[in-house]
Amino acid sequence: MDQCVGITQDRLLRYDLCCLFRYRVPPCVSTLVFNLLEAKEEKYYYNSASEVERDLSIILADHGRSQRDTKGRRKMGPFTIQGDKLYGRANHRKTILDAYKRVGQSEMLSEVMMVSGYAGAGKSALVRKVKKDMIDKGASFLEGKFDNFRQMEPLSAIIAALSNFCDELIKDIKQLEQTSAAIREKVGSEARVLVSFIPRLANIIDTSETEVVNVGAREAQNRFKFVFRLFIRAITPPAKPLVLFLDDLQWADQFSLEIIESLVTDTENKFFFFIGSYRDNEINEGHPVSNVLSNIESKQLSIRNIKVGNFSREETNAMISDLIQITPCLTQSLSSSIYRKTSGNALFVIQFLMTIYSEGLLYYSLESKEWRWDVSLIEAKNIPDSTIELMSRKILQLPKETQNALRLISCLGSCEHSLLSLITTEHDSSGRKTDSASDELQNITFEHSSLMKSLENAINEGLLDHTGTGYKFSHDLFQFAAYSLIPQSQRDRWHLWIGNQILRNGSISPGKALFLAVGQLNKATMLIKDTDQIVQLAKLNLQAGRKSLSLAAFEPASFYLKTGMGLLNEKCWVVQYEICLQLHEFYAEAQYCSGRFEEMNKILCKIFNAARSFDDKLRAYFTFIEALGAQGKLSEALEVGLYVLSQLGESISMTSNTNSILTEEVTKTGKMLEGKTDAEILALKEMDNFQKIAAMRFLVTLSAYAYFANQDLSALLSCRMIQMTLIYGVCKHSAIGFVAYGSLLSCAYNDISGGYRFGQLSITLLKKFKAAEHMARIIHISCSMINSYVEHHHASLQAIKEAHTTAMKCGDIQLAMGVATQYCVHSFQCGVNLSTVEKMLRECGQKMKENKQHFYVSYIMVYRQFVLNLIGHSDDPLQLTGEAMDQESVMKFAIENKRSSLIKTINEFRCLLAYIFGEYTLASQLIRESDDDNLLYRPAFSTCTTIFIEGLISSAIACKTNVIEWKKKAFVSIEKIRYVSQHAPSNYQHMLVLLQAESSVFLGDNVKAAERYDNAIRTAGEDGFIHNQAIAFERAGMFYLEQGNAAKASHYYGQAHDAYLKWGAKCKADHLRLRYPF
What we know:
It comes from Ditylum brightwellii. The protein has 51 helices and twelve strands.
């Protein structure tokens, strides 16, 4: 009877299925219905209509699931999965794509997305699945991955990402030409700096005719950051945003993190999107990644975070349903078992599924045409509870050759073909003995073709990926699994063998092979007993340390150099003196660059005590002096520097009677130069005395420090540079000496012609020696102290702008910020619209804060608030308090920190405001407070402007009070401006004429006054000084008002009002209209 019922039910099922086909119901849906009717076990029953609806939706969305169509799916062992499928990550995907859509759409900086989670959670998979969407929307997508085993290789992931970019770019000739042109335009000759980091860039940009300017390690790091920013801007056109994805940031070197910070905070590149991923369980509060993220957030940049967790039970079921291509209802028992074992970790789920398949616990029945499994057998099976253990067991099931290949790659991390060729042999050499005493390694050979076959096998097993240029593990956990199969006692021997193979078969130039060989050998130092081999490894660490320093990677440099020092014994200063000295020198430099001054001092003391000669101490002394300067200890730096100079035969005294010494030295220098033409100076022999060249280098550094700490000493140092040049010959440092001497003549001795001559000579010397590292400083000094006494002030603007770029390209951030400040002030002095100047000052201040140049920030605050007051963004135009600064707070800071120059700057700008707004008594008080006769060096145009304003104030008070003292002061100002006007009338003639007009008023010569006011107005306009033209209009209006000529007064006041508005001084224009209705 039961048999008849079964036959009857079977016929009914077939009849129902035929009916479904007849009504053109899709086969996949028909099959689902058939399975529902056929289900005999309770576990396969649906509990609700919503579950049926869910499975129907999946089937209709994934049309053809029951037909096992694998088109568009990725092979995963015996299973297939759709490439764009996400499980519980839809919101994450939307978050990333929404961020991408915002790129370049607002005034915000670059977008930053951080993806975190445990190993195997699917962080990288999430980003790569969104990758296609972004590329389809026009993005360029670069990606790189940091390696736990190669953390001491500077910028490894960034270099890998850009190397792949270069490889792809050369496949598209048109795109290659466009990108190369953009790089040449943005980066210029500094592209050579990038090629030294990323050799494959040489395939897309020609740098054969350019040379890298030799700069210090700190400057090299700053230079690279700046040039790399330019490069990223060049390859990021607005129509094609650049996405950079860097994986496993927890293993990134410090320099890479700093480069990331530099890129995402670049205010001039809003089409850059950075995505980083890291294991949050390996990142604590003090971790470098946490520190960099905090730095980025402190710059008002929003970081969006995505936390990728494990799959839920339902998501795990959906994934398994996809993998084996049956409906979720039928996979619940299997997925529940797997979920209990894996907790839903994405990688573990997949590997667990593949394991139970390989062990026959999950199989496809050809008879019943369905997947079958037994949960009780799966749970009873002793399957490891971690991915690493699971993968280790899987690897052990592979052929022995494949196991050894995976062990080899696990020691290397990612590995390019070129590096593998250094390790492998051309022919089978089985049975040969290795240098290692390891029994395991003695019978292992890595013949090239056999190794390639083994690696292909590993790829087929899903353990490795072929990157095009080499191999990498499909996941870090696979690498750890392979590495764990090397017994702890044998690992050092594997690393030793690999390092020796690279040394034997490769030319160890400062590149990737060097870092790889040293990294391997450093893991095996306990096995190296031979003295010659130990010394050889110390030399290799020195080489790697120096290369890292040249790449501005200070942390890796410190590691290699310290390792090198640790390899040598206590007798090294006797037996291996040269290598020992260099290791200590460069290690001290690395500590200085990293800001670890205490450690630096310990090493420097060792050098000073152990060095055989004073010449051998020079590099250490230079590091010491630069470190003191970096800490703001200028007096100490000068004291040490003068001691070094004395040891080099160039004694310079720092007595209290510096004025008389300075007079003697200036006179002596002048006599030595007397009768010598520029051609004769240029024809001098080139300096070849090592000690004198060293002394010149110290003089250049010390003169910069002395400018801020002791200007009399700075003048003495510049004189000594000229004297040494004339005695021992000319060198590239002579250029600094001549421009410093020229500025001394212009500023302190009123020798404008002589000052200008030597300023120009310094530029000629600079070009002769191609000393680009001094270019920015020389332009800075020339345009500030010399040129405005001879050339039109406007003519220097472009040169100052280029000097800023040059300083940045040379990595001299402090000088670059000083030049940037100069450019802003220079623009204001040239009458550039105040709104433009305010924007420049605001951006300049931001860049200073980015670069931690706090010394100049306070000055920028004063300049900006002054401009804001004129524009109208302050409650009281006479007080420097508002958006940019609080006058009382800044003045208190300046007094407490003895910043006399800052106090002087505040008083000067308050004085100018007081004069502009007609508060002449206050202005007269402030001009006295801002006066400082102790400074030898004063910026040319600023000095003349101060004299000009002092003359205007004195004249205004003289007109009101008729006091002789004020008249005398006005005439002193007139004579001073008359002198400079003879040399540069385009800058100072309008000042002179306006002061003369004012003097004519208090002298009672109204005819001359009227004529001179008109002359001052005309010349100020013709020479491009609209702000001074506005003042001249206003003074003329007041003159006519006091004469009772209301019509003319109204005309000139109206012209003044319009000029102030044109300049951008709305607050002053409004003040004028309220005070003098016209």
